[in-house]
Structures are given as C-alpha cells and as structure tokens.
Amino acid sequence: MEYGLIGGKLGHSYSKTIHELLCGYSYELCPLPTEADARAFLQRRQFKAINVTIPYKKLVMEYCSFIDPRARAIGAVNTVVNKNGLLYGYNTDYLGFAHLCEAHGVELAGKTVLILGTGGTHNTTRAVALDKGAAKVLTVSRTPDPEKGELSYAEAVHSGAQVVFNTTPAGMYPNVGVCSLDVAAMPGLEAVVDVVYNPNKTELILRAEEAGVPVAVGGLEMLVAQAVYAAEYFLGRKFEDAPGEVRRITAALRRETLNIALVGMPSCGKSTLGRLLAKQLGRPLVDLDEEIVKADGRSIPDIFAAEGEEGFRAKEAAQIARFGKEKGLVLSCGGGAVKRAENVRALRQNGVVLFIDRPVEALAVGGDRPLSSSAEALRTMEAQRRPLYLAAADAVISNTGTLAEALAAAQEALDEIFDS
Questions:
Q1: Quick one: which of 27, 56, 102, 168 has the fewest CB in 10 Å?
Q2: Is 271 one of the annotated binding-site residues?
Q3: Could you tell me what this protein does (predicted)?
Q4: 313 is in an annotated binding site
C-alpha cells in the first residue's frame, strides 16, 4: 500500500473518495480490528504515507521517530509519513477544524467555548479554541468529573457559552436523531460546530438552525480540509490554493452523497420529476408512498380507512426516518410529509429539499388520494401546507410549464446548492 487509512472500522469512511478526487493517487482503506493488527501493520511499515483514525491516533505515536510539536501537545497523530523507514507524525485534524471555523466565520477570541465530549477530538478543538484567543473553554461530559471542572449537560445549558463544539459521536450515522444538549434553551449562542460529518447535519445542527443560531455547521468540510493538509505531507508540497481545494472537494462530496427530497402537494409532479431526475443523475428513486404500501401490505386509502390520518402519518414518519439518513437517493415524499417537524429534520439531515410548486387549480382531484376529495379540499389543504413547504425547502421549483423546464430548473437549483 502506498497511501491509505487505518482504523478500527472504516465502512462509512469518505477518505478514499476525498484523496482520489484531490490527487488522483490510489488510496486504500485498511481496517485493523485489533490493536495487535495495528501494531503488526506499523511494524511492517509497508506504506509511503497513511492517515490514522479511531482508535489508533495515540498508539501510532509509539512508532514515530518524529512527532510534530502540535501533534505531541494534542496527544494524537492522524497523519504518518514514511521517510526511509522512519515514521513522521502530524495532526491535520487541528488544521481541518481551524479551517472549518474560519471558513464559517466562527469568532473565538474572547468567547466562552463549550466542548461536548472528553475524547481525543476534544483536545484538538480545545487547542484551536485557545490558540484563537478563547477566554474560557468548558468541557461537558455524560459522567462529569467535578475535580476536572467538567459540566453535566443540564449544567451546560446555563454556562453562558457563545460557541459549542460537539466532539462526541452523538447523532452519527446510523444512530441519527440523537441530541443531548438543549441549544434552544441557550440564548446568546453564536455558533454550533459539530465534527460529525455523516449525516451532513446532525440533530444538534438541525436544532441549532431551528433555534436561530447564526452559524450551525457539521464536520464534512473539516474532514476534507484535514485530508487536503494531510496530502501536502504525503506529497511533500503545498497546494497553491488549499482552501480552494477544500471547497472543490466538499462540493463534489455534497453532490455525490446528499439526498434530493421532493416535497409538494399531491399530484404536483414529484413522482414524475423524481423519476426524470433520478435517471439523469444516475441515482436510485425512492417513492415514500410506495414504501409505505410495501411495508404495510395495504393501499393508502385502506390505511386511512382503518387507522385514520394519524395512523398513516406514523407509517410515513417511519419510512422517512428509514431513508432520510441514507445518501445519494432521490426521495419523492407524500404531500403531508412536512406536517411533522421530525420528518423535515429527517429529510434535511442528509439531503436537499426541493418544493415542487404547481398551481392548485392544476392539481388532480380524487383518485387514491384520500385528502384530495374535492377542489375545495385541495385549496384548503394547499393554504395550510404552503408555509410548511416553503419553510422546509432549500429551493422552490415551479412546475407550471413543461416537464423539461421543471427538470432544468431543478438541476439549476441543485447546482447552486451543492456548490455554495
């Protein structure tokens, strides 16, 4: 192996994609389930350069002849270069996190910073906060040690912090939807930064957005930035525009991994546009109404007849939760999907939401849509739901002309969102 990544479990790693998009060299994922496996790998030293992830960022330091002072101070190495049999260790997580904060205007000088978690990444983010002039750095733990000054999550709400860093795996795929800190009860928050990158927006970030926190950002850009700076060590040269490379690769990853969720009134064209969009982009299409029928074994009218709208909505929420955390899908949602806030969060956690907007007079009446029983029912429903569609959507796609025009508008909107 020339270049690659070692760690305990690497099944969901984006590192191979990032490095190969960035530099074009072959980059291998090398899972090492046990410490013995990791030690044997490091003793053989059959690589040019590697990245290191959990749980071996400390262990690898034992094998390094040189450790960069910043990495030694943090107590973790994530980048190792083999120079004639001698291993040189660096920490580009620091550079990646510093880039993430700077790129999103997170002001740390003079601020109180609250760090969730006590693991290795805590030390990295703490070093960045202190180096950038934070006035106070507080630590939050599920099992706080008062002698170390650690806070509980309940105490953290009243800490007066302006900035929150999450370094725990809370909300990480596949265990999404977890949020331990009540950010809505923390007035004065200026920024919430989560190192978790899968999903794109954790529950913490989604709730921070809902609470109106000015900056709420996940860790994808940090992941890309640390890889860019690691590649500089790998190749022994600087990129002419490292921040530009970070933006380019981040946009490419977002384009590849984020779902595209289509919302809007019944018969507005979500399914038809979804099929065209999925075909054009080479993505799977998931029609959530079809998935409800498949899972339940009854038609939607039969579900409504037996369990009412609430029963149907519970089944709908289960399918949105199932598919919303996945990646690279086109999701055609039922007309009422936006009625539940948890559905919107599930769609937004790893996806872009497009509102397919078709005039109410052009919508179909009746059919297998129990709530579209009359034109008057459609008008009432549209008036109630329209604000919810607009609040959920990243872009509005007008479907008043031809399908080709709507498809072109959707693609244009997606280009702008992915590249922003």
A1: 102
A2: yes
A3: Catalyzes the specific phosphorylation of the 3-hydroxyl group of shikimic acid using ATP as a cosubstrate.
A4: yes
